[in-house]
Design brief:
By secondary structure, this protein is α+β, with helices and mostly antiparallel strands. 52% of the residues lie in helices and 7% in strands. The protein contains 65 helices and 25 strands. The strands form 10 sheets. The protein has a 5-stranded antiparallel sheet. It has a 3-stranded antiparallel sheet with strand order 4-3-5. Bound molecules: zinc ion (ZN) (7 copies). Ubiquitin ligase protein which is a component of the N-end rule pathway. Recognizes and binds to proteins bearing specific N-terminal residues that are destabilizing according to the N-end rule, leading to their ubiquitination and subsequent degradation.
């Protein structure tokens, strides 16, 4: 069937290809009815090309379409072969000075914070790098797709609109040139014809809605019964739902279903079945049925194949148009004309209108294609952009209505184009004046929020899900409004004024619907049953915040507009509250001889709302008026006469009282929604247009009324009127405990009220309120933030309000108020407050939260104490008020205020019960302080003709009047000064009295007014104490200096500890574990130390005592005692790998005996160095396991460690472990001491003896393995074979270790085997000992690499956990043979030995180029005792070690010479050294044995150098190995870094300094050995260049190089597409830092199966690249990802920092990021040290949520 279809398709193709584009276009040129002709062509061919089967063949379709359908059009346009025609057009075209590059998803975009008109103006990377902005303050973001580069748009940039490339095209722009003049009349006419037909065709077919019928002029004669079941995208159903449904409905595999779902998500639709109508209909009904249960069903259509075919071609056509107009601006102009030409149906009927108006009905793929066409055509042509903008504005309401109904994201809606017009200043202004855009937007917005209460206010309560959904969508309209307002007019026309005010009216209507919304009533008795909805209202407020501010900014620009707006706003406010009584009962209050009319209203009993946008807008406008010139010159012209101050203050005051009552706990029963509202009311995101403006409104009110009246109203609203009007209120409650709650509540309310008064008088840093500018305001904010604590840049930014351009204005002032402290290896850069700014600190700063206030207070007092100052925190000196607000200060000296102060001080003096509080007193003291500061300033700034009317000092010195006869405030303060219960406030009172005296002095000296007589005692006292004080001060300074030095020193010490944390911790650990390891100290310091061989330095046996961390018992490490173990973690590693492509797919069969020199996968063992009894550990481990199993069953929780795999956490340090290493004494000493002969064989003799012994073993084994042979034959053979002297193969030595130690040897051996090979544990497997030796060798190699890379000495101070680990590991590996089968170990030895001394009986031995010599050395040395223990001929173990070492060293030298880089070095040497001559001789021998295949002899100097360099790592590893094996202390020379220590190493390792001497000493055997090594066929192949080999020294692996600038990584990732699907979307491009591969992470498309489970691309990659461990950079998130296995992972801070020393995880802030080399090095260190898994473990222990993440899907 399939092949039949295939051949049919091919047959069609052939006939199609015969069709000639030239002929067709010729026919068209002759046609009288071109449209009919072209349509016929399309009707005939399109269904033959597209949609021929179940799956699309995009390449073939494109090829055919180009040939048959598009080709003729191109011919037609050009009138000749387009291959010549288009280049001609291109040449005559003047390239555009606009870039217009359309952004892909994830592409980096740049905005200049200095020059961009608004943050939506962005550049592509290429333009940015060629622009002046790269040296400015810029911001980098990643595009969400859509939008284009604004390079060349002069309106978008205040400066530098062109990059270098686009600048070139600007030289000749004159005015507006018609691009059509570059085209011939003919081309214009033909292009117009064909564009008109094709554009119409595409629009018609894409918006076609019938499912089985084509438009009449495209209908076919014969129609097949072929249909598609088309599935459409929606935003309701999840991926999983779709995949599940598809598997059911169309019977496909999960993989296919994933494919379908992914395409649907990307393109918006995908056919999921092809066949006859019935067949497709059936699938449709299953899908609909399956998805309609909870939500609306998935959209599915059964469509005739020909319709789909035409639609596919329609899309192709649109992209074709887009590319054709790229040839010439003239063509683009024609297409614009065609697109915007009004159609037959009149207004809004052009092709572009038709597309826009059916936007919400189109599928995603179609939308993005035509949006792109609009961007490359209409938006690139400045003339038509304007016309298009007008059309867009005309259709605005309808488009928004459609968008509301549509369920797609805004990014794929045509409404998202608004940003392209609305942010362009001239366009926006034109649209405002000509299309009344502001009003249109606001009205559209209001239309969609219909839900209102009886008063016409918005109501969000009982909102349905659908309404909530619409509400979210409608918010984009606010964004549009913001765009329109973002660039402010520099000039106003009358038209603009009129239209703006019209828009302002509409806006007021909107705010009116918000004024008083969501009112609340205090809940008494019971708690509220349901938390009322509050978020919607706040969302609205939050979204509108910037718009409200911008409205004010606009008003501020034109006085006429401002005054008009002010009047309008006031009128609306009056409407809102119907005058001020609002129907409430009037009452009158009197107090201290003043009386005032007000209303009866209690916040705690009646409705109150937090939303008062109209009042707040009026407050904002009032401040602007106050700032304006009119206010200074002709205040009478301001529309202030209509204001009724009591009405203005009423509602803001209620709101503030509400906050106070909530704070006093009176609204507890109203639940969290209220708490949240109060929180947001003060929050930085809202406060600017909420809380701040309420304060301003009260300030406005107070400045216009009698302060006594204001205070009385305020007392009444705070419900405190009775407290202060009742005589002896304080006394009444002093002993009465029944009203405790009420009293406390009242106390809080009094505190809050005093705080409010402080704010009203003190908050004058908004320009317009006080005589300050915007800089002063922001400075003050920063000073107060930094008074709390030093802060990082981002923290500070977050605490400051952002304007509509996302700017806080912080950068311009930060240097004036703070010092920057750079970050270290971790942490962030910090800003610290400059000490001289501390005097501006105001404890009652109005943006402090309670917590911040108390923190700041504490910090500031501490600072003062440190500086040896008094701890008073007096109010700072304040700037003067603007004239409109000037009378506000009088509130401080008003009668009511003084009465309140007096009363509270009285309470404090009498100190009765709980009728007062310290904070109350503190606030009164602050207020008094403020009044004094005010008076002092008035006096200091007084001019001749003015009389200072602020006479606070006079008033407070007067005693109270009859009948109370209370003492004066001053007198009470003096009393309180000595009160022992007010210790904290003593300094403040002292400060007040001092200031009082200072003022008195000023007054006296200027004698502007008589001063009342006061007690002079204080003055006298101060002068008497003056001398004393001076002396004291000097002593103080001296002590201070001393203390400072001390502090510096301790700081330095702390720094040292920080920097050397690891070292420090280790010393601590050492103390803690009390492991008395001493053998690093040179015991035998005078001798030359030798680590091995018969000349090995004898070290006196040391006893070692250790303490178990679990039971705290001390024990000696001995052969026969109970085992002590170290917690250890064994892991596979590819850190040293030189070949990451190697993959071992069958671990069961893998033979690890020989390690390849590419070290592609090793087994690393690490330990935290904590020691336990084996049995204590076992008990601990069992209990952990049992506990975890229970927990997992119960909670289904994951842990940071995998219990089933034997993992546990070290009980002391919580380090991840998976086994334990037994602690042993040097194992050689146990066997060595048995025999000691002086006469030892030389290398030649030794090799001969060993070869004989091996042969004997082989003979024995052969017999043993042939059971049929009679035992008599056996004996005969034995006789024939000359048995080596003293060799007793039947001897089996006794294992000296205790049972417990033996058990641990097996445990650790098995663990190494299990982890290293990834197999099931099997202690009998012959590979167990090999894995143990391998792990020992690999771990030593890893450590050697780290030490060398870091230039640390080989035997320098090693962290003691490493030292412990290496010692135990080496000794363990050396002892392991005692628990393995003797014959197995002997077998391994024989085979290893055969690789160097061939004996013909092993076939599969690699050549010496393919053996890692250090692994070979370790294997041979550690297996040797198994052979030696049966040898009674007198050869000692030491001799064997030495000969093995020499033999392997020789092989390594040959290996190095064979692979050394033999570039010709023609220099002849003058005086070759002995070594150089020797190495030349050896090289000649090699040359000879390789049959001259080795290259010509280079110079000796060069050869010797490469041998020395190549062998160094091996020598170093060997030195470590023998040091730990035999316990010989290291020579002191190697304990320091510096020189290469080649000679010292040779001495220590018992090697001649001239290494080649080894060959000369043993010349009898060397030639035959060299011959056997060189004659190997692999060596030959290598020398012939047919294969490769590892060279020495191997270079250390590094993590990949990262670019300095982070954006180039983003750019790289944006060019990366999913390797499986192609296309342009990879959601989470992730870079492997080990090998540099980019992966498509966290996505269905790239999931693969690993060990039977679906895993994401990263996890899959770790298995091939890192043996399960991975280090990645998530490029879009700017986050480092560590992975280990399938279940473990964590995020790590990235090595990229911004200029403020901070990382930007998630790329939210967009500051430019640069590589921090030190941090990157630290990550590399973690990798080299094999600490990634440990790091993950610690992160997961610290943050449990990390455990729950599905790491395997990343
Ligand atoms: Zn660009
Ligand atoms: Zn450019
Ligand atoms: Zn700039
Ligand atoms: Zn113990
Ligand atoms: Zn530990
Ligand atoms: Zn993918
Ligand atoms: Zn990799």
């Amino acid at each position: 069937m399939a092949s039949e279809l295939e051949s049919e398709v091919q047959a069609i193709d052939r006939s199609l290809l015969e069709c000639s584009p030239e002929e067709t276009s010729g026919k068209w040129l002759q046609a009288t009815d071109l449209t009919r002709e072209v349509y016929q062509h399309l009707a005939h061919y399109v269904p033959k090309i597209y949609c021929r089967g179940p799956n699309p063949f995009p390449q073939k379709e494109d090829m055919l379409a180009q040939h048959i359908l598009l080709g003729p059009m191109e011919w037609y346009i050009c009138g000749e072969d387009p291959a010549f025609g288009f280049p001609k057009l291109e040449q005559s075209n003047k390239p555009s000075h606009l870039c217009g590059r359309v952004f892909k998803v994830g592409e980096p975009t740049y905005s200049c914070r200095d020059c961009a008109v608004d943050p939506t103006c962005v550049l592509c990377m290429e333009c940015f790098l060629g622009s002046i902005h790269r040296d400015h303050r810029y911001r980098m973001t990643t595009s969400g797709g859509g939008g284009f580069c604004d390079c060349g748009d002069t309106e978008a940039w205040k400066e530098g609109p062109y990059c270098q490339k686009h600048e070139l095209n600007t030289s000749e722009i004159e005015e507006e040139e018609d691009p059509l003049i570059h085209l011939s009349e003919d081309v214009i006419a033909r292009t117009y014809n064909i564009f008109a037909i094709m554009f119409r065709y595409a629009v018609e077919i894409l918006t076609w809605e019938k499912e089985s019928e084509l438009p009449a002029d495209l209908e076919m004669v014969e129609k097949s019964d072929t249909y598609y079941c088309m599935l459409f995208n929606d935003e309701v159903h999840t991926y999983e739902q779709v995949i599940y449904t598809l598997q059911k409905a169309v019977n496909c595999t999960q993989k296919e279903a994933i494919g379908f779902a992914t395409t649907v998500d990307r393109d918006g639709r995908r056919s999921v079945r092809y066949g006859d109508f019935q067949y497709c209909e059936q699938a449709k009904s299953v899908i609909v049925r399956n998805t309609s249960r909870q939500t609306k069903p998935l959209k599915v259509q059964v469509m005739h194949s020909s319709i789909v075919a035409h639609q596919n071609f329609g899309l192709k056509l649109l992209s074709w148009l887009g590319s054709i107009i790229g040839y010439s601006d003239g063509l683009r102009r024609i297409l614009c004309q065609v697109g915007l030409q009004e159609g037959p149906d009149g207004e809004n009927s052009s092709l572009v209108d038709r597309l826009m108006l059916s936007d919400s009905k189109l599928w995603k793929g179609a939308r993005s294609v035509y949006h792109q066409l609009l961007m490359s055509s209409l938006l690139m042509d400045l003339k038509y952009k304007k016309l298009f903008a007008v059309q867009f504005a005309k259709n605005y309401q309808q488009l928004q209505r459609d968008f509301m109904e549509d369920d797609h994201e805004r990014a794929v809606s045509v409404t998202a184009l608004s940003v392209q017009f609305f942010t362009a200043p001239t366009l926006a202004r034109m649209l405002i004046t000509e299309e009344n855009l502001m009003t249109v937007i606001i009205k559209t917005f209001m239309d969609h929020l219909r839900h209102r209460d009886a008063q016409g206010r918005f109501q969000f309560e009982r909102y349905t899900a659908l309404q909530a959904f619409k509400f979210r969508r409608v918010q984009s309209l606010i964004l549009d409004l913001k765009y329109v307002l973002i660039s402010k007019p520099t000039e106003w026309s009358d038209d603009l004024r009129q239209k703006f005010l019209e828009g302002f009216d509409a806006f007021l209507e909107l705010l009116k619907c918000m004024q008083g919304m969501d009112p609340i009533t205090r809940q008494v008795g019971q708690h509220i049953e349901m938390e009322p909805e509050w978020e919607a209202a706040f969302t609205l407020q939050m979204k509108l915040t910037h718009v409200i501010s911008m409205m004010q900014d606009w008003c501020a620009l034109d006085e006429k507009v401002l005054i008009e707006a002010y009047k309008k706003c006031l009128a609306v406010l009056m409407q809102c509250h119907g005058g001020f009584t609002d129907g409430e009962q009037p009452i009158s209050l009197s107090f201290c001889g003043h009386s005032v009319e007000t209303i009866r209203y209690c916040v705690s009993q009646e409705k109150v709302s937090i939303h008062l946008p109209v009042s707040r807008l009026l407050a904002g406008l009032h401040v602007l008026l106050s700032k304006s010139e009119v206010a200074y010159k002709f205040p009478e012209l301001l529309p202030l006469s209509e204001l009724s101050p009591p009405m203005l203050i009423e509602h803001p005051l209620r709101c503030l009282v509400l906050c106070a009552q909530v704070h006093a706990g009176m609204w507890r029963r109203n639940g969290f929604s209220l708490v949240n509202q109060i929180y947001y009311y003060h929050d930085v995101k809202c406060r600017r247009e909420m809380f701040d403006k309420d304060i301003v409104m009260l300030q406005t009110g107070v400045s216009m009324m009698d302060p006594n009246h204001f205070l009385m109203i305020m007392l009444s609203r705070f419900e405190l009127y009775h407290v202060f009007s009742t005589q002896d209120y304080g006394k009444r409650f002093c002993s009465d405990i029944t009203h405790k709650d009420v009293v406390q509540q009242n106390n809080t309310l009094i505190e809050e009220m005093l705080y409010l008064i402080i704010m009203l008088v003190g908050e004058r840093f908004s320009p317009g309120v006080g005589q300050v500018n915007a800089t002063d305001e922001i400075k003050r904010e920063i000073i107060h933030q930094l008074s709390i604590k030093p802060m990082a840049h981002s923290e500070l930014v977050k605490s400051l309000p952002e304007d509509e351009n996302k700017e806080t204005g912080m950068e311009s002032v930060i240097e004036a108020v703070a010092h920057f402290k750079k970050p270290g290896l971790t942490g962030r850069g910090m800003y610290e407050l400059k000490p001289e700014c501390a005097k501006e600190f105001n404890l009652y700063f109005y943006h402090f939260s309670r917590a911040e206030q108390s923190k700041a207070e504490e910090a500031q007092r501490k600072l003062k104490r440190k500086n040896r100052e008094d701890t008073a925190l007096p109010p700072p000196v304040l700037p003067p008020f603007c004239p409109l607000f000037a009378s506000l200060v009088n509130i401080l000296q008003s009668d009511v205020m003084l009465y309140i102060m007096e009363t509270i001080l009285q309470w404090a003096v009498e100190r009765n019960g709980y009728a007062w509080s310290e904070s109350m007193l503190q606030r009164v003291l602050h207020l008094i302080g403020m009044a004094l500061q005010e008076e002092k300033q008035h006096l200091e700034n007084v001019t001749e003709e003015h009389v200072v009317t602020f006479t606070f000092t006079l008033k407070i010195s007067k005693p109270g009047e009859a009948p109370n006869n209370t003492p004066s405030i001053l007198a009470m303060l003096e009393t309180l000064q000595n009160a022992p219960y007010l210790e904290v406030h003593k300094d403040m009172i002292k400060w007040i009295l001092k200031t009082f005296n200072a003022i008195k002095k000023i007054r006296e000296s200027s004698s502007t007014s008589p001063v009342a007589e006061t007690e002079g005692t204080i003055m006298e006292e101060t002068s008497r104490d003056k001398d004393k004080a001076e002396r004291k001060r000097k002593a103080e300074i001296a002590r201070l200096r001393r203390e400072k030095i001390m502090a510096q020193m301790s700081e330095m010490q702390r720094h040292f500890i920080d920097e050397n944390k690891e070292l420090f911790q280790q010393t601590l650990e050492l103390d803690a574990s009390t492991s008395a390891v001493l053998d690093n100290s040179p015991v035998v310091s005078d001798m030359t130390l030798t680590a091995l061989g018969p000349a090995q330095t004898q070290v006196p046996e040391q006893r070692q005592f250790v303490t178990c961390i679990l039971c705290q018992e001390e024990q000696e490490v001995k052969v026969e005692s109970k085992a002590m173990v170290l917690a250890a973690f064994v892991q596979r590693s590819t850190v040293l790998s030189k070949n990451r492509s190697k993959f071992n797919d069958d671990p069961e069969k893998y033979d690890p005996l020989f390690m390849h020199p590419d070290l592609s996968c090793g087994t690393y063992t690490g330990s935290c160095g904590h020691i336990m009894h084996a049995h204590c550990w076992q008990r601990y481990f069992d209990s952990v396991q049992a506990k975890e199993q229970r927990r997992q069953q119960r909670l289904r929780l994951h842990t940071s460690y995998d219990v089933e795999n034997g993992e546990f956490l070290c009980p002391l340090c919580e380090c991840l472990s998976n086994t334990v290493i037994p602690l042993l004494l040097p194992p050689r000493n146990i066997f060595k001491s048995r025999l000691n002969f002086s006469d030892q064989p030389n290398l030649t003799q030794w090799i001969r003896t060993i070869s004989q012994q091996i042969k004997a073993l082989q003979v024995l084994r052969k017999e043993g393995s042939t059971p049929n042979t009679a035992s008599s034959d056996n004996l005969e053979n034995m006789d024939e074979f000359h048995f080596p002297e003293g060799f007793r193969p039947d001897f089996h030595p006794k294992n000296p270790y205790s049972e417990s130690i033996k058990e641990m040897l097996t445990t650790f051996g098995t663990a190494t085997y299990k982890v290293g090979l990834k197999v099931h544990p099997n202690e009998e497997d012959p590979r167990v000992p090999i894995m143990c030796w391998g792990s020992c060798a690999y771990t030593i190699q890893s450590i050697e690499r780290i030490l060398t890379d870091e230039d640390r000495p080989l035997f320098g101070p090693l962290p003691c956990r490493l030292d412990d680990c290496l010692r135990s590991l080496t000794r363990f590996a050396a002892a392991h043979w005692t628990v393995a089968s003797l014959s197995v170990v002997q077998g391994h030895f024989c085979k290893l030995f055969a690789s160097l001394v061939p004996n013909g009986s092993h076939g599969d031995i690699p050549c010496i180029l393919d053996i890692d010599m250090f692994h070979l050395l370790v294997g041979l040395v550690l297996a040797f005792p198994a052979l030696q223990c049966q040898d009674f001929s007198g050869i000692s173990l030491d001799t064997g070690d030495l000969h093995i070492f020499h033999l392997v060293t020789m092989a390594h030298i040959v290996q190095i010479l064979l692979t050394s880089c033999t570039e010709e070095n023609g220099m002849d040497q003058e005086n070759p050294t002995e070594e150089e001559l020797a190495v030349l001789a050896l090289y000649k021998t090699l040359h000879w044995y390789t049959g001259s295949a080795l290259k010509e002899i280079p110079c000796g100097w060069h050869l010797w150098r490469s041998v020395r360099a190549g062998i160094m790592p091996f020598l170093k590893c060997s030195a470590l190995f023998f040091h730990y094996l035999n316990g010989v202390p290291s020579p002191p020379d190697i304990q320091v870094s510096g020189t290469s220590h080649f000679e010292h190493l040779c001495n220590y390792l018992s090697l001649p300094n001239n290494l080649i001497g080894l060959f000369q000493e043993n010349s009898e055997i060397t030639n035959s050995l060299i011959e056997s090594w060189c004659r190997n066929s692999e060596v030959k192949r290598y020398l012939e260049g047919k294969r490769d080999a590892i060279r020495y020294p191997r270079e250390s692996n590094k993590l990949i190089d990262l670019p300095e600038d982070y954006s180039s990584l983003i750019n790289q990732a944006s060019n990366f597409s999913c390797p499986k699907l192609g296309g342009d979307k990879s959601r989470a491009p992730t870079l492997c830092l080990v090998c540099g591969t980019l992966l498509c992470s966290q996505s269905y498309c790239c999931q693969t199966e690993l060990e039977g489970e679906d895993v994401g691309a990263c996890t899959a990659h770790t298995y091939s690249c890192g043996s399960g461990v991975g280090i990645f950079l998530r490029v879009r998130e700017c986050q480092v990802l560590f992975l280990a296995g399938k279940t473990k992972g964590c995020f790590y801070s990235p090595p990229y920092l911004d200029d403020y020393g901070e990382t930007d995880q998630g790329l939210r802030r967009g500051n430019p990021l640069h590589l921090c080399k030190e941090r990157f090095k630290k990550i590399q260190m973690l990798w080299h040290q094999h600490s990634i898994t440990e790091e993950i473990g610690h992160a997961q222990e610290a943050n449990q949520t990390l455990v729950g993440i599905d790491w395997q899907h990343l």
